[in-house]
Every structure is written in C-alpha cells, then in structure tokens.
Amino acid sequence: MLNHDTFNAKNTGEIEVKYICFKNAGILEPDFISSFGVSVKDDNSCIGFFGTGLKYALAILMREGAKVTIYSGGKTLRIGTKDATLKGKSFKFVTMNGEQLPFTTELGQTWECWMAYRELYSNAKDEGGEVEVIESLPNNSDDMTYIVVAGGGIEQSHAAKDSIFCASTGDLAEGVYTQGGSFY
C-alpha cells in the first residue's frame, strides 16, 4: 500500500486514519477533470452524463478543506488549490498536480459536501465500481481508478449514504414514481 504524503497521515494506532475511496475499473484520463462537457456516458441507466459532476465535486471538496488524490493508470493526480486575484477579488483555483484548472472553489457555491459525495458515488456506480472506507492508500494499479478523499465532511456524507441513495425501488416513499423520472 502507498503511504502518500498528500494525505500527510500515518495510522500509528493513536489516530485512526480513514479515507473514502471511490473506485472502478478503467482509467480516468486527466482531460475528464480539466474539461467541461466531456462525458462518454450514453447509456440511459447512467446517473450522470453532463460532464460536469466531477468538476463540481472537486471544487466543493477543495472548498471544504478535503484532501483528494486520484490514482489512475499508474498516475497520481493530486488535487489542490492556488490563490489568484482577478479584478480585486480573491479566488482559489482548483489545481491538478500544481497546474491550474479552469474552475475555482466557487463552482457550485450552494452545493454541500453530501452533493460532492453524490457525484463521486454516482460516477463510481455508473462505471460499475464501488465506494468503501479504507485505512491505507491503494496500490496505483494500471487498470483501475481510485479517487481517495479524506476530511471536509466526506466521512459524514458516506455514513449518511442511505439517506442520499435509494437502496431499491421497493422502498420509495409515497408520491415517488419509478416511471417517467429520475431518482437516486
């Protein structure tokens, strides 16, 4: 297992370090992170398809102070922020391996951490993956993608996942219809 300095944490027995890991088979190309409207989801069963959710999730998580690292295709992509001032106003641009991306932490200004969780969870499910709590960082496999998040409220969002997603359509509340609309 990797002991990556991005998270700056060790499981010493005194403090239990937990990460939420969104994982699936396949490689996440960096262009999916740095470009809006890039989506290859054309199946009606997919939750997402706009090509914006990952960017929103990263902006929200950075705004909330989470630590995010993406391991994919043998590459490590560290998500961070960079301060900038435009027309006298301060912004935090989201970065990938120190390179500024074309969006700031103000993307999704009214979104909360659970909404970032929803986006990452949906992407993992759309790709046939899973979400789990891990205590050590994953091996960086050439044919897997791991989005590893710590802090910023992500653990609480994961603990509340059953209030975000329906486990089955059999438990839908009265007035929620399974035809002609979307639910998650």
Description of the structure:
With 184 residues, the chain is α+β, with helices and mostly antiparallel strands. The protein has five helices and seven strands, in the order βααββββαββαα. It has helices at 31-34, 53-63, 113-126, 154-159, 161-164; strands spanning 19-25, 67-72, 75-86, 89-96, 99-104, 130-134, 144-150. The chain has a seven-stranded antiparallel beta sheet. β2 and β3 (75-86) form a beta hairpin. The longest helix has 14 residues, at 113-126. The chain is globular. 28% of the residues are buried. The model is unreliable at 1-14 and 179-184 (pLDDT under 50).
Keywords:
7 strands, alpha+beta, about 30% strand, about 180 residues, globular, disordered C terminus, 7-stranded antiparallel β-sheet, disordered N terminus
Radius of gyration: 17 Å
Order of helices and strands: EHHEEEEHEEHH
Distance between the termini: 33 Å
In DSSP terms (H or I, runs of 4 or more residues), the helix count works out at: 5
Described by strand count, sense and barrel closure, the largest sheet is: 7 strands, antiparallel
What percentage of amino acids are in beta strands? 25-35%
Could you list the spans in which at least 5 consecutive residues all have pLDDT below 50? Answer: 1-14, 179-184
Helix content: 10-25%
What is the general shape? globular
The structure class reads: alpha+beta
Task: Please outline what is shown here.
With 184 residues, the chain is of the alpha+beta class.
